[in-house]
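Exam prep: given the inputs below (a chain plus ME8), describe the expected output before reading on.
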Amino acid sequence: MSKKFYITTPIYYPSASPHLGHAYCTTLCDIIARGKRLRGYDVFFLTGTDEHGEKIEDNAAAKGVTPQEFVDEIVNDKFLPLWKAMEISNDDFIRTTDKRHVETVQKIFSRMLAQDDIYLSSYTGWYCVHEESYWTETQVGPEHLCPECHRPVEKKDEPAYFFRCGKYVDSLLDFYSKNPDFITPVSKKNEMVNTFIKPGLQDLCVSRTSFDWGIQVKENPEHVVYVWLDALTNYITALGYLQENNEKFKEFWEDPSTEIVHVIGADITRFHTIYWPMFLQSLGLRQPNRVFVHGLLMMKDGKMSKSRGNAISAYPLIDRYGVDAVRYYLLSEVPFGQDGTFTPEQFVTRVNQDLANNLGNLLNRTASMILKYFDGVIPAWKGDLDELDKELSSLTLKTKTAYESYNDELKVSEAYVEVMNLVSRANKYIEEKAPWALAKDPSKKEELESAMAHLAHVLYSAGMMMKPVLVHKSDAIFDALGCEQEEREYGNIERLGFLSGHKVVKGDQLFPRLDVEKEIQAIAEMMAAPKEKAAA
Ligand code: ME8
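Solution:
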């Protein structure tokens, strides 16, 4: 039976259009999900939107529409079309206004209340609307600013329900020490323990009475459920937890052999690694295997934001360079454990160096030579005739192993660096073999055949490993190698020589080389006037 893998993105606030940073996170998850599917895993990939809270209520009021109308428009006109344009292969899309979610959150709240994990009290303190969080006098300091986003906070005094964190803190620390990989990269765990747990974790306020746009507490309709208790549970409500049809829940959550990975940005680590595990404990449910904190995609002048005028929409990039180039760029720009910076120069350089000059060039040269020297028929595999052949074959297999282990460790961009290194090596092999010279010497025919067979196999293997990123261009590679649909199998990477006798078809250039100056200028213009396009 195939191994099961459950991967989630954060559910984003539909308070404005998603920017390239959101697109980065969703694309990263998509690449991980597609990579696992390619290797035969049974995958469930979830994304969605986090639609309740005071911020959304305020934004809707400012626009003169109801909160539901407000979120419907953003989800339908901005989020869903963007994910379609980015070729996101999610298996479900959860909205926290979905009936299935609302009803389940009410059941979860009731259950926690019944078992006295939640109790009614009152809250006096400082509140940040932007972070939807309460803070103490010490935390906001004399200037009364939110310690997280540095915006001014408001004084609040209201009845509220609280979650008993104290009850679960010891078992949380125990869980961390028994599961050192739970928070990835591990440095984030120390930050959580030292900043939030060690100084003393207060009970978490889990209801609000100062606004209406939320899930009503059934037992006390004056209250709505705190947006983070509401939001975090999406990961199980989407699977059917406490619902009639809970097959997916059994398969992708309850089954201890399922690997569960939440992918998030550093800004929401506290919620996912402290409160979420406690909520799960309270519900008597297993923990996810990993919370993976990815790096951010920044702009030169800091965080991407519309107000700074430095945000860039994915659409004009997709229109001009194709979705595969944008996906590849996003993936490669943010290495594991680090942030990346979007610049037009870097975008053009990546596409030119890796996709046009390296991968595109290998395809172009290989296909042209096979057409020229062998009428387009890939020569029969004769094994490795010399050290160079041997090195290339063994590198292909080694790359597959490294690609798998990097992917499994969630060092995703590193996995694709390995594939690009294989492609570079194959381009260098062409220089070393000099097939044009071999072709002039009839006694070297076998060597020439072997070189072409080796190059074709590297191309196939690279195309296959790149498939989760290059969702269209990988097929262009297989088309060029004359592969039937049913032959496009990951396992064939290990069948050296399976392409013998295939007929090469010369197609268009895989990635045309970009004119550096012209394209840098074009991207700078996109950034100056971020235009959005409705879905096709
Ligand atoms: O926090 N680069 O939603 P949100 C990369 N609703 N990723 C970025 C990014 C950037 N510049 N900016 C944002 C919320 N992100 C909650 C989540 S989950 C139960 C509830 C990504 O719309 C990153 O993954 O503010 C970050 O954690 C997430 O978007 C925050 O999205």
